[in-house]
Structures are given as C-alpha cells and as structure tokens.
Write a structure and sequence with these properties.
Elements: H1 25-39, H2 45-54, H3 61-77, H4 79-92, E1 107-110, E2 118-121, E3 125-129, H5 136-156, H6 163-176, H7 182-189, H8 195-212, H9 220-235
EC number: 3.4.24.-
Membrane topology: Peripheral membrane protein
Family: Belongs to the peptidase M76 family.
Length: about 250
C-alpha cells in the first residue's frame, strides 16, 4: 500500500473554522488541525498563545473533563478497547517480540463539527469529539472504531486518500467496534431488521457515509460503489479478533 505520508503535512496554520461541507477537503482535515491546536504540535508560540486565549471550539471545562474521565475508564475496563490497545502495542514493537506500552496521550478529547464523533490521523492519533459523546458506552464504540483504524494503519500502511483503502478500514472499524451490534442499531433505528442483516446494513451505511467525507469521493453513489467492491474481503477480515462482536 502507499505511504500514508501522501496525506498533506501540516502547513501554515490558521485557527480552524468548522467546515460548511463535510465532503470537502477542509472537512476531511478539519479535525486534524483541531488536534494540532489541542496538542500544540507544529504550532508557533504565537499560535499557542492565541489558542489559550480565545480558541472557541473548546467546550466548557466540565464537558472536556468528562470526556477524559470516560476515556480513562474505558481504557481500564473495556475488554474490546483493552484488547485493541494490546494489539496496537504489539505492532508498535515492529514484530520483534518487543511490546511497547500503548500511548494514551495519542487519544485526545476536543470539540468537533456535528457530523462526527471521532477521527484518526496516522501521525497524530485519535480524536474523541467531546460534544458528540452521549455517554461512556458511546465513547467505547467510538474509541474502538478509531483503534481499528490505528491497527490497520500500523499493519498495512493505509493510504487514507485511496478510496478502496479507506472503505476497507471503515468496513472493518464499523463491523468490529461494536457500534453496529443489535442494541446500538435498535437505539438508532428501532424495530424492523434482523440481527445478521441489520449488522451488515449498518456497516455498509456507516462505511459509505465515511467514504463520502473523503475529498477524493465524488458523491454517495461512488462511495457506495467502492464499499461494495471491497465488501467481501474486508467484512470477512476480522483481524485481530477471532470473530465479529455483536
């Protein structure tokens, strides 16, 4: 697969504005710039000071603190997230038998546009959208989803601007994270689906929506076509799990 460095590196930064169109390049990279402001990585001293003074996307301290409390609880007690952290640690050891501790600082909470609950960037890590997290169980599903992307990127060096690469990881993340299990779909959509078909429909729907946000995707029709093209191989690939969690 292509080198993930094909994603444009951080350049001259201005305080990010929320994207008017989540399908745009700005929308695709908005959270990456938000992550930079939150961590301070790549910012000049003046930009850091501006962030401290008036960065208007940081929500109330209580909401931010709650997100981190949920994050820390899930990292400690969620079987899915703990397992993914272990698998990521093994890959970070470059397969040489060495296991590096999972870097929890790579998981950051911040405010995001209304159309997403989290994000992953290969250089920066995982963003949890504190203004979109309903409760700790929603955060668990979101974090597990992004950790599948983290795993995929380490294992296969995903090119996130390649639509097939992107679609494959989105299929796996939605399927393996638990966000498409019966109880989650029932909460979102109510009655009218079987467990097996409901799970697959949920995965396809969510993967298609995510691929639509890729700047190289023209529209929903193309996103759905790409998802269908890679569906069989990617949906049936449950690594590092033995089976799909429903």
């Amino acid at each position: 697969m292509s080198d993930p460095s094909t994603i444009p590196p951080p350049g001259e930064l201005q305080k990010p504005e929320p994207p008017k169109n989540p399908k745009s390049t700005e929308g695709f990279h908005w959270w990456r710039r938000t992550f930079q402001y939150r961590t301070g990585i790549g910012l000049t001293p003046e930009e850091k000071q501006n962030y401290e003074n008036d960065y208007h996307f940081v929500l109330q301290r209580k909401q931010c603190q709650q997100c981190y409390e949920y994050r820390d609880w899930i990292l400690k007690y969620s079987p899915t997230v703990r397992f993914m952290a272990q698998q990521i640690s093994k890959l970070n050891g470059n397969g040489g038998g060495q296991v590096l501790p999972f870097d929890e600082s790579k998981i950051v909470c911040d405010a995001c546009p209304e159309w997403r609950s989290g994000g992953f960037h290969p250089e920066l890590g995982i963003l949890l959208c504190q203004n979109r997290i309903r409760d700790k169980w929603h955060l668990e599903d979101t974090l597990a989803h992004e950790m599948v992307h983290y795993f995929d990127n380490l294992k296969w060096q995903v090119d996130w601007l390649n639509l097939k690469h992107h679609a494959c990881s989105e299929i796996r993340a939605s399927s393996l994270s638990g966000e498409c299990r019966f109880s989650a779909e029932f909460h979102r959509r109510g009655f009218g689906f079987t467990i097996a078909k409901g799970h697959q429909d949920c995965v396809k729907r969510r993967a298609t929506l995510s691929v639509m946000g890729n700047p190289n995707c023209k529209d929903e029709k193309q996103a759905g076509k790409i998802v269908n093209e890679v569906w069989d191989s990617c949906f049936n690939d449950t690594r590092p799990f033995d089976e799909i969690y429903r």
